[in-house]
């Protein structure tokens, strides 16, 4: 019997699960998330192994969903000094890179910015030839001054030739420095794609240290046979090498792990998911078994980007949310006791009224000691819970794309605070093991690859364009660590682009497969 470990880092708790090859849960643990993230991961790993008593050589896979990249951007720490090379002179001179970025984030990344001739028009025609001599000069200038490079060419999703040639030249001079190419990360929209590419380049070292420290922890625990994967934000996995090329794809992997875990536990292919943690709640959508993606630009750390992100609404409401009354009005959060809930909530002998205390007072949950919340006035508890429920109802309504009622899957340790009735929902599913859906989502995940390209149908047939995109997505899944024989196309979308000449179409394809 082979086993796999899934670990997911939340804002309040770090969860770890052990599953067998039949995807049956063998053991699970929760430990408080630590400020440095890593020590909480090591503790969760150690505890789940000790509790299970499994032969460690039989654990073949270890999956990690982590907030390291998100925290690095939020805290402006451990980011690589990055050279930004934009190919598009003179067409793109009007707006410089990093416009609108928070000043402290610009300082953390470094303002090494270069604009050179090259790039393409929206129909693929060259604006001007790539200035290779200038590129070599820049490479010599930045050698030893930066740790990573971001290359962005205007309309590279239409033609990526200048970005690929730029990478070749830079590697000739700089050797094996990490180079992020914008056509591999974002879609149309130069500034948002540039922002995503720069953030990706800045996160390379964070991904490397995260992966290496996780591998070291596994070795320390005797897991010498385990292949390591990191979770990405579409609910699937990627190999360590792939994660070091695209670390930005780990951002928001926690909520998508929960959505995949909810789909797995509930056996539902299409549903709403409400993941309630200790500090926040995330509402997402299962669509064909995978998290629905956002169709709008997303801000990360104050920076507007257009790379793939899950479609989520986050609420400042969780099991540890502080409830109080001010001037006769009930206030729900946004403050939370977070991972200190077992010390500070009334039901655990603390002195702070939390959302969990309200749920226990109203008989909705059995946690801690009911005796310790009996002094909360019943009227106060009812008003507080009505306000919490109103927040949930409103967010659910925003996530729905149809007025038809849908099933709602409740997961996360804090989901005990949710009532048995939610507006716009025809069924509430509280699956077994709901409290560790996030780590389960990591443990049972497949490996995926995705392609998002623009094709001109004046050069080829629609069928040929679709086949090319499908094959590219399959190749990406294999590069990310999927078993080539198991990869299938799971999602295809083609959108005619009326504003581009040449009968242009944007094709997005996702392929997914099992672990090698």
Can you walk through the features of this model?
This is N-methylhydantoinase A/acetone carboxylase, beta subunit. It holds the Pfam family Hydant_A_N. It comes from Thermoanaerobacter siderophilus SR4. One of its GO terms (molecular function) is hydrolase activity. Residues 193-363 form the Hydantoinase A/oxoprolinase domain. This protein is an alpha/beta fold. Among the domains are: 79-199, Rossmann fold; 269-285 and 293-427, 2-Layer Sandwich (Nucleotidyltransferase, domain 5), CATH 3.30.420; 446-513, 2-Layer Sandwich (Defensin A-like), CATH 3.30.30. Helix content is 32%, strand content 27%. It contains 14 helices and 23 strands. It has helices spanning 38-52, 68-75, 103-109, 132-142, 161-174, 190-202, 204-220, 240-245, 253-266, 341-344, 355-361, 378-399, 437-443, 462-479, and strands at residues 3-9, 13-20, 25-32, 59-65, 82-89, 112-117, 148-153, 179-181, 227-231, 237-239, 271-276, 281-287, 290-291, 298-300, 303-305, 313-315, 321-326, 329-336, 406-411, 425-429, 447-456, 488-496, 504-513. The strands form six sheets. It has a six-stranded mixed sheet with strand order 3-2-1-4-9-10. Strands 11, 12, 13, 16, 19 and 20 form a six-stranded mixed sheet that branches. β12 and β13 form a beta hairpin. α1 runs parallel beside α7, α4 (132-142) packs across α5 (161-174) and α11 packs across α12 (378-399). The model has no long low-confidence stretch (mean pLDDT 90).
